[in-house]
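Q: How would the structure tokens look for this protein?
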Amino acid sequence: MFLIISYSEDPHALLVQEELARRGAVCRVLDPRNLGCGATLSARLGTEDSLLWQVAPDEGIRLDDAECIWVRRTTISDEMVGGVAREHALFVRREWQEQLFGSLSGLSVPLVDDPIRQVLCPKPLQLKRATEVGLRVPETLVTNDEHELRAFAGGAGVELIHKTLGANDILLFTRVLSDEDMSKLDTLAPAPVIFQHRVMGAREVRAVVLADRVLAAAFAPEPSMVDGRRDLDVPYEPLSLPTDVEEKLCTLVSRLGLSMAVLDIRLDPDDQPVFLELNPQGQFLYLEILTGMPLVEAVADHLQRYARR
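A: Here is the predicted structure in token form.
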């Protein structure tokens, strides 16, 4: 049996489940939001290890019996802590995260990918590993120090952009660092921000890496848009990256302890790639819709390839 840990309405999970079923494989989607809200998770450790996800009183699934588990979404939902006093909510969230991540990571079942590895690849580490494998990255400063930022901005001679380090409940796009932003640097101290030289170029690339396989698509957002994801009308087309670039992308993903990731790349005015960031479980379905690339099939291939026999 293949298992997918994700939301029950996640189209990525449902379509891959359907593809695996078409190939004759049994696959279940387990929604982490149900834990603590009717479903239970029990790990036995010692002489005999097991991990039981009790979907319903009369239905339990042994995760340690799975052929492969695609760990796509593990967010601790508000429903899990809905009946808990507000002052205890953070404690409950952390306990569920410890249980879910620790128990999954300890399995001998192949994971795509280990949830702890997914968390432990923040953007500064991504940029560092990218340079180590020979990819170009933007000149970058990660800081909460306004003096460091002023020095970085003053010596840049180019436009700067800024973005968040991690995922947030609110979708925050990459933006140009404006004069208004510079006038509010006294508000920077509470939390660090990523600042980078803006990479100019007409095209961006979204690349899906599955071990040693790369499926990429290029698009040309409006020049005024710093974050190409905001251009919802731009056409995408499949793109074959140079072999050496594909090898570097695959090596980067591997060095981060992952087998799968979705990467964002900017092509400079000379059409040379500049790595921006990656998401271990980024969105890829829209690329298939817009280009016809067989990404659902490719992910199913990847899970079957990693499955234990």
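The CA atoms of residues 64 and 107 lie 6 Å apart.

Residues 203-306 form a domain with the D-amino Acid Aminotransferase; Chain A, domain 1 fold (CATH 3.30.470.20).

Upvote if useful.
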